[in-house]
Amino acid sequence: MGMGEIWGGMGSTIATAMFLYAMFQQYCPAMPYQFQMIYSRWFANLFNPCISISFYEYTGERYQRNQVYVDIETYLTSNSSQLARRLKADVVDDSKDLVLSMDDYEEITDIYQGVELCWASCQTVSTNQTISLYATDASERRYYMVSFHNRHRKLVTEEYLKHVREQGKKMKIENRQRKLYTNNTAENWSGHQSKIMWSHVAFEHPSTFQTLAMDPVKKKEIVDDLMTFSKGKGYYAKVGKAWKRGYLLYGPPGTGKSSMVAAMANLLDYDVYDLELTSVKNNNELKKLFTEVSNKSIIVIEDIDCSLDFTGQRKEEKEEDGNEIAKNEENSGDDSKVTLSGLLNFIDGLWSCCGEERLIVFTTNHVKKLDPALIRRGRMDKHIELSYCCFEGFKVLAKNYLDLDSHPLFETIQSLLQKTLMTPADVAENLTPKIVPWDVETCLNNLIETLKKVKEEERMKAEKESKPTTKEANTVLRKIKKKLMSIRHLECLDPINLRNYMQSRLHMSEIILQVSVPNDRD
Ligand SMILES: Nc1ncnc2c1ncn2[C@@H]1O[C@H](COP(=O)(O)OP(=O)(O)OP(=O)(O)O)[C@@H](O)[C@H]1O
Ligand SMILES: [Mg+2]
């Protein structure tokens, strides 16, 4: 049937209906108002059985985007790039790729369970000239409108819209550009908006657990622990604990603590909040910062021992009196400082449960300096030591840097690594090619040479430390002379007895005795 015939048929149907409606009204003028309404709706439905629902970008007084609108936008973005003919491209804050979405006043048709749904991207433009404080111009209100046949009303309202939102949320997480945040000083906050409290850049650190050089058994244990945590929503709710976990990473500089934080974020697909405690003035500011941290994130405090006064001095104070820390903080009258109790409150106090699925990571080079209260289990649930490079770690680095699984020189490197302390950072640096073109032998030999040099330096250092200096030897000699003067019965001791006597009484080493005790009594 051609279009002309369809329009012709529809025209005669409309004319008949209008005629019937006019007759009906003429002969039944006294029909109650409700009946009139029902019949007029019936007539309207007969010719326009279409229902439409609108979803506005901003609703009421809210200055945040309507979440339903955002979900629909994400859902339509994936469909519209294939179906719409007019698209607009944008770099969206949260997305890692360029986002293509339907242009204004464009329409696409989505199909769900065989039902056609027509989506349109619309705008109302008000003629009122208003000045808006909100993120969007109040005179332009954007919205999406979905239209469908009345007979699918139930399917759409009960199933389809739910499906759209779920898919939109899922796509958003998949396309999300993860971020690395750092806290701003309070002077730069304005209106307590999270965007001002934390600045961010895109988080694109390449470190993963595959590229981390460490003992493979330990590595697997950490990965298992993290995966169990990320799937533990139900478990944490059941045991009545906030869904968070603390990690303490400690070890010498260059052993991979920061690299591990990045690997954790990449494994779990979390954002990273690098909290610089020295720019937080007091506990109140800290509270505000914590409450603005999003879920699925890692809060990391690097070099916690250098951050604030959480270290040895406090430890001693606490050891003398269990309540000392709280007392000191209360009495100091100085509310312009972040205190240990303030920090602990966010780690496992009442405030720790605002937000979920969060890791709190502390890194330090000096674990012994830290206050035990800060790192006890339950606060820092897992303590991970990152140490000098072992042979297994070297193999990971050889694979990363030289794409090498094995080589005859590996054996030499293995035996040298057993006797030498070298950080993964130093091993990595020695493996890095320095000239073009490069070859693996040169890189491995570089490492071997450096390892030998370090080993020799360590040997010389140890030797030097074991020998007393001239000054030390003279001091000891003076002490011995003084002691000898006071020993009355010295004459009756032969040299061997004298040596034993001095060893037991003076606790002096064999070397010193050799220096200071003559072979004969003269
Ligand atoms: N375990 C490791 N596995 C792989 N690479 C490592 C490892 N440790 C260090 N590196 C390399 O050395 C560099 C420095 O490492 P990283 O910053 O993670 O050390 P760190 O322990 O955090 O040091 P610091 O205590 O000084 O902060 C990294 O960029 C990485 O290339
Ligand atoms: Mg570091």
TrEMBL record:
Catalytic activity: ATP + H2O = ADP + phosphate + H(+)
Region listing for Disordered, in residue ranges: 315-335
Segments of skewed composition (Basic and acidic residues): 324-335
Provenance organism: Stephania yunnanensis
Protein name in UniProt: AAA+ ATPase domain-containing protein
Record-linked SUPFAM superfamilies: P-loop containing nucleoside triphosphate hydrolases
PROSITE patterns linked: AAA
Molecular function as annotated in GO: ATP binding; ATP hydrolysis activity
Coiled-coil positions: none
GO terms, biological process: response to stress
Keywords for this protein: ATP-binding, Magnesium, Nucleotide-binding
Domain AAA+ ATPase residue range list: 243-390
Family of the protein in this entry: Belongs to the AAA ATPase family. BCS1 subfamily.
